[in-house]
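Not sure how to ask, but would you mind making up any protein sequence you like and the tokens describing how it folds?
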Amino acid sequence: MRSIRVFGQSFLLLSSGLAAARAQNATVFSLATNESSDQTISAKAPAIVVGFVGGFVRHDNGVHSPVQLASRVRDSYPSGVHVEVFENRRREQAYQEILKMLDSDHDGKLSEEERRGAQIIIYGMSWGGSETVGLARELGEQKIPVLLTIQVDSVAKVGQNDALIPANVAEAANFYQADGLLHGQTEIRAVNGASTRILGNFRFEYGAKTLKCENYPWYDRVFMKYHTEIECDPAVWSQVERLIRTKLPAAGTQRAESERTLPRAPGE
């Protein structure tokens, strides 16, 4: 049976009864919502959501969960939120596009007001998780804040440190599995705990009952079995999506639903 263990540093539960029940098996499915409401993007402010795919995956390959997530969020926000996915080798392109979007007066440079008004969310899978932190760090060098970073089975590239979250990031979450030849960063931590809140390091375990991941290449399913399973696991990506949506303006009833409903383990 596939089991899920979650190790987090900071959680919110919607009721004490639920908290007690879940504490017994060390499983927590509620991810920051109410406590971070002051950081939610204003409905009038433009938001930027950037995703990075892993490995050598194309940015528009709809088989992969990071691309599917972007499509769902994009469909929910026909205006007011810019959502884009990049290959993990295209970090500089993502950085330049962010700068252009923040330059609201199109004068070729960012004012202090344009920097302060940045509403940026970054997420990534595998090498894309490493580039998530790299992009946040690069934005921090320009004093541009980032609302949220999310890493899924993040694998550090040579010369990169995907464990240390820069001080310009308000909140960060890490989802990982620790089995097989290729596995993710097990713990992220903040450069400055006063400015960055680590939502948690959430561990998923995949045992005898495996996910099929049918549309993924056979060699991924064979040689990177568990790494592939966390990428195609809807339980993981539903939580990633909920976290992202708590930072976005209401789109119909979706935000209200995401705050009322806790993510559930398969079979609950």
